[in-house]
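cron nightly-structures :: item 1 of 1
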Amino acid sequence: MPIHVIISLHNIGFGYRISGSGRLQRRSDFMAGERILLVEDEDRIREMVKEYLENAGFSVTEASDGAEALDMFGSSEFDMLVLDVMLPKVDGWSVCREIRRVSSIPILMLTARGEEYDRLFGFELGVDDYIVKPFSPKELVARMKAVLRRSRTPSGNVFTADMFEYKDLTVNMSSRKVTIDSKSIDMTPREFDLLSFFVKNRDRVFTREQLLNKVWGYEFGGDYRTVDTHVKMLRESLGKYRSLLVTVWGVGYKFEAEG
């Protein structure tokens, strides 16, 4: 049974705290031993993940079905949620969807299934990253830390230019809004981060590895399909401007537009 990891940064550890309802609360200092709610109905997998996470310094609370997980999430504070998809009572996708109704907390999914459909479905739910098994435990923790680093600021990036305009395409960095022909375009947070990075670095070619480092914050080689899937989603969101995002065969991607 594949397991999925959802990282819920209720305590982002950089001077602020995000509650389960998504409210930003100031805190005096970084709190070590982030609290994780581990939701897995298969005892062997749950114990294995719990042991590794505790060895990495996390504090772990367990739940064995989706309904119990939602109750715990609503009544207690957790920094991260480790969630299996195939759960009794309420499945993992539904748990994720319910949490997304009240929180924009970053999400990292871990699964044995690497098909594009699964990645797209997860990203459309608001997932920030997707790791396919087999995986290295060190990579898992490193990616978790990368999500924490990206959460230091609301966008994960700092831009000196506040607005980009090309014909009737407008990208507002401050409000994180994209419009085409004065109509608002819905994007996931990671889609916007990727678009913002390309806009800021127009006409420069970036490899997938560079994009994982610059946009996702990874300091190691990750799954390049994460980049490809987000590029595909971004092109669909851009509609008639999809051609601005150019594939440089054998290298990577670049954004071509005159600002």
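cron nightly-structures :: done
The chain has two domains: 3-150, 163-255.
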